[in-house]
Amino acid sequence: MIAIIDYGMGNLRSVEKALEVSGAKDVFVTSKLKDIKKADKIVMPGVGAMKEAMQALRKLRLIEPLKVIITQKPYLGICLGLQLLFEKSEEGRSTKGLGIFKGRVVKFPDKVKVPHMGWNELRVKGEGLRGKLLKNIPDNSYFYFCHSYYVEPEDKSIILAQTGYGFDFTSAICKDNIFAVQFHPEKSQRLGLKLLENFVKI
Amino acid sequence: MLAKRIIPCLDVKDGRVVKGTRFLNLRDAGDPVEAAKAYEKQQADELVFLDITASSEKRRIILDVVRKTAEKVFMPLTVGGGIKDLSDIRALLNAGADKVSINTQAVKRPRLIREASDKFGSQCIVVAIDAKLRVKGSPFAIQQQNNGMASGDRKGLSGKAWQVFVNGGRTPVNLDAVKWAKRCEQLGAGEILLTSMDFDGTKDGYDMDLTMAVTSAVNIPVIASGGAGKKEDFYTVLTKAGADAALAASLFHYRELKIADVKKYLKNRGVPVR
């Protein structure tokens, strides 16, 4: 059973359908804590601003429970679902995240076009970790990105992949049961579905 | 490295694709979902649906089209045409569109861009600009001069200036295309879909001057549109004119060029493509 957390930040239908096509049984979209607790795995999608995302989670009274649950079962964060894991974002004045990982969420500098939009390559860092989420996904494969902010983890050992956009930024992280990606596997055609299939099988 | 994107555009009317469908070898020629699947197979990087449904009571049909497409096709989808307000945008995004493209209503009420990007994020708000070369001495230019408006027009690098048109290119408005693009960026647009009305349908290539004028004025991605006729056209607009993506409709519908061949050509010439 996979719970996709709905906190009002974007369309979750694509993620749901992509997971189903990738072999997931029993996928459901929910914003209720009891459903999230029941699920074996959690997927946290979302696009847009971190400030609004945190406000939405607060309204749903999910912040404190999520801090615990995320560390307990396989978690896949997509886009905002990656950024929310960190301590704070420089978006707005300053927005606090869930703080599962140390580090911050920062905006791309003006020397590159913002948003970073389109297909870009993944350079896999942790070969040992590839076995799970990125199994059978070749190095330098293209995935679809659409974001203005990126994460800067303090602990570099959680970096699973990087992507070049003027400089190398973190495009995927992994630690224990937590996986999170900046790109959109649900919009990345064949290889995106492969990645979701890998998560389903974890 | 970020790849340059090749984007086919489909005109959808009353829920059916209206142009060139029989050339895509589809089982159901007018079915947008079938067309989207065909383009996904052909390595399209994104897909644009332009809803040209005229009657307002049939406008909700597009939502169903988007819903069905998003269930079958796992690639970015932009939907434009007839968007009036935040609830239209929300409905399209909830149906499965990744981005919405606003044109006429953005000109009529620029604050919509700000409100929409605040609400849904810049990354899903595309502003479509239809631009036409401003010919000196045209009635409009003279009228503008009389109003003292023309002096502020931002000239492109070519010394040319372009005027914005709305309502599917039928209505000229008193806006300079390059200045308008900059304003859209300031208001929070995440991307500009720039169509040259002068070059659209000519197959003479994209409007290099217009595209260059806009790409050098803004720091958001620009999709060039209008005029593609051969592989070289994609190369020049994506390199020399600085476009981030190139859009074409009939060229791909009628199978005059295959997306895969365009990409192969670009790759051989050193342009990053997927």
Describe what this molecule looks like in 3D.
The complex is a heterodimer of chains A (202) and B (274). With 202 residues, chain A is an alpha/beta fold. In chain A, 28% of the residues lie in helices and 33% in strands. Chain A contains 7 helices and 14 strands. Chain A has helices at residues 13-21, 33-38, 50-59, 63-69, 80-83, 127-133, 189-201; strands at residues 2-5, 27-30, 41-44, 75-78, 86-89, 95-96, 101-107, 116-121, 123-124, 142-147, 149-153, 159-164, 168-175, 178-181. Chain A is globular and about 45 Å long. The two termini of chain A are 12 Å apart. With 274 residues, chain B is of the alpha/beta class. Chain B has an 8-stranded parallel beta barrel with strand order 1-3-4-5-6-9-10-11, surrounded by 8 helices. In chain B, helix 1 (32-41) packs parallel to helix 2, helix 2 packs parallel to helix 3 (86-95) and helix 9 crosses helix 11. Chain B is globular and about 45 Å long. The model of chain B is unreliable at 141-156 (pLDDT under 50). Chain A binds chain B through residues 10-11, 13-14, 17-18, 21, 47-49, 110, 113-121, 142, 144-148, 164-165, 184, 186-189, 192-193, and chain B through 1-5, 40, 45, 67, 70-71, 74-76, 93-98, 118, 120-124, 190-191, 219-221, 244-245, 274.
Beta-strand residue percentage of chain B: 15-25%
What is the C-alpha radius of gyration of chain A, as a whole number of Å? Answer: 15 Å
Helix content estimate of chain B: 25-40%
Helix/sheet category of chain A = alpha/beta
Largest interface summary: A-B, 35 and 33 residues
Low-confidence stretches of chain B: 141-156
